[in-house]
Write a sequence for this structure.
DNA sequence: TTGAAAGCGCTACCAC
DNA sequence: GTGGTAGCGCTTTCAA
């Protein structure tokens, strides 16, 4: 690996000059520029990012903190963030907080120690101390906070839509999954659905659930044991919806005739389920991209039109809900 | 952010001493150690990893290159790698090569420029130049190479098993999906299945397929159009299996009575499909962990028992294959 | 327009 | 056992 010294020697100039043409800063003669650039090419010189970072106190790295990389929703977010960052010549250190605050703190530490220029975090603890007094900006993704800029899906309306669509299609005894109590996004969609349910003439049960794979299956089994008469489920995310769909078919219910199911997120696999899952779509990829853009704006001191960006969600009608009569 | 100087001043010693107790190198008096450690705590000092890295030419970062973060198999690998690294106090820069060689090269560049201590790569281009002449070790994951250390599933036997189990359960006209031709792992499992099919009295068709979401669905549709009489499908991975399962049910085939389907990978969602997918399980999480361990051994110059670690695969019997008669 | 030199925070050598 | 100091590769004054 050649250094700036080698380039300077090769081009017959000083390292200062090389640095200047490298960064397009200060003056430098066209001819000198040319010679330097030739030397760079010849030696295949790439600046040492670590040395740069040490001096500038800024790397080209952005920290991305995910709560659970196994939930397909998050890789989708990550892709959006990554693609946008890549276009800006930036790179990602991805940390998987695994829903554990200690891990989260550790990763933030690492991000700091590596001079990241910013953090995008999709974890559940936006209001906790590790995010305070940071010397670089933090953007929350898929989380609502007032303390920080953020990008998130319109959970309240999503929940409302889910309830509206399932009621409209004739479910009368609905199970409403609540999702983790500490998760604002889960609670938003829950509240939306709750409000809609309260305003209509249907019975419903509220059931606590987690967002993880392992819990989803167990929850599905107990759900049907405890409430065998339900004819509609509003799930807290697609993972739970998949588990419920699966269990419903296993015990011989017909979908969507006996039971309608509606998910949340629209992860890529939802349309590969059978029957394909009706769900509330969050534009995960775009949310990731927006968060990256927002972070870049903050870093570059560009004016912010809005600090908290709410993304619209849409009902995706597939086949776990019944067709609605045309003349509703 | 306090520096080593601040700590030295606080403890009334030199920076050299602080560095020594920090790294447990060279001599230092117990009392001095204590004082230094107190100063560290008091100032909440964390060493600047960038400065360390500049001097040592080694960071605490490991590059992880994934071909497609959206395929749930890879996050699973990533988790294994991450958990092992985390226990070693190391962190990951994750790059998503997106099956594009340019992106791959760019990420390797970034890894270099950030002084990673090693790379774990799950991409398809192990034999290409970017991996040559690197100053740090590379371990390939989910890829067979002789040029580098690697950890991979036993694809040949996996394919063989898949064919064996489906034939044993009575399929007579089988579609064998081939997976991407350039992907060694895909070809291994293909060859295994092929050999097994050739040694038995069944008809079969070989069909090319990709590993991606988007292609899987189209492929499934044409598959049944072109070969309406098949009664068994050996898929190249679980994603394609899901697409086929889905399409088969859509056109009214009964699973597993009319058609048996067997997948490959055992991604977390496979058991949530309906019917739950029979598949060949690759121990993705463990493979990730093994790859991380292997890399660490190489970095620490520990003796290697084996440079290429093949992990066993197992048949997971779920419900897209028929029950076998007890007295086979 | 260019170059010499200081210094980012750290480690390791060498002298005491 | 401990401290002074050079230097990792880079950027940025400041003088020339």
């Amino acid at each position: 690996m050649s250094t700036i010294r080698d380039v300077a020697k090769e081009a017959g100039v000083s390292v200062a000059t090389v640095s200047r043409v490298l960064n397009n800063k200060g003056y430098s003669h066209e001819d000198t520029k040319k010679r330097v650039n030739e030397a760079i090419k010849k030696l295949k010189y790439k600046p040492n990012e670590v040395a740069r970072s040490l001096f500038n106190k800024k790397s080209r790295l952005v920290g991305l903190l995910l709560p659970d990389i196994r939930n397909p929703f998050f890789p989708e977010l990550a892709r959006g963030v990554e693609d946008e960052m890549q276009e800006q010549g930036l790179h990602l250190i991805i940390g998987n907080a695994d829903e554990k605050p200690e891990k989260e703190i550790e990763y933030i530490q690492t991000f700091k120690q590596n001079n990241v220029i910013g953090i995008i975090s999709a974890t559940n603890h936006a209001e906790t101390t590790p995010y305070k007094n940071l010397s670089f900006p933090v953007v929350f993704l898929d989380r609502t906070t007032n303390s920080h800029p953020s990008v998130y899906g319109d959970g309240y309306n999503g929940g409302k839509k889910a309830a509206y669509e399932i009621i409209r299609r004739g479910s009368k005894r609905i199970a409403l999954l609540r999702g983790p109590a500490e998760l604002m996004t889960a609670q938003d969609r829950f509240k939306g659905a709750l409000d809609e349910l309260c305003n209509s003439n249907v019975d419903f049960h509220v059931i606590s659930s987690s967002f993880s794979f392992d819990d989803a299956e167990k929850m599905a089994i107990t759900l049907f044991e405890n409430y065998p008469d339900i004819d509609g489920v509003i799930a807290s995310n697609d993972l739970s919806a998949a588990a419920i769909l699966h269990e419903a078919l296993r015990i011989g219910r017909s979908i969507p005739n006996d039971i309608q199911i509606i998910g949340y997120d629209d992860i890529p696999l939802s349309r590969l389920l059978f029957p394909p899952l009706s769900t509330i779509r969050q534009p995960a990829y775009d949310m990731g991209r927006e968060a990256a853009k927002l972070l870049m704006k903050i870093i570059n001191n560009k004016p912010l039109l809005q600090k908290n960006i709410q993304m619209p969600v849409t009902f995706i009608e597939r086949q776990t809900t019944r067709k609605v009569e045309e003349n509703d």
User: Anything to note?
Assistant: Chain A touches chain B through 53 residues (CB under 8 Å).
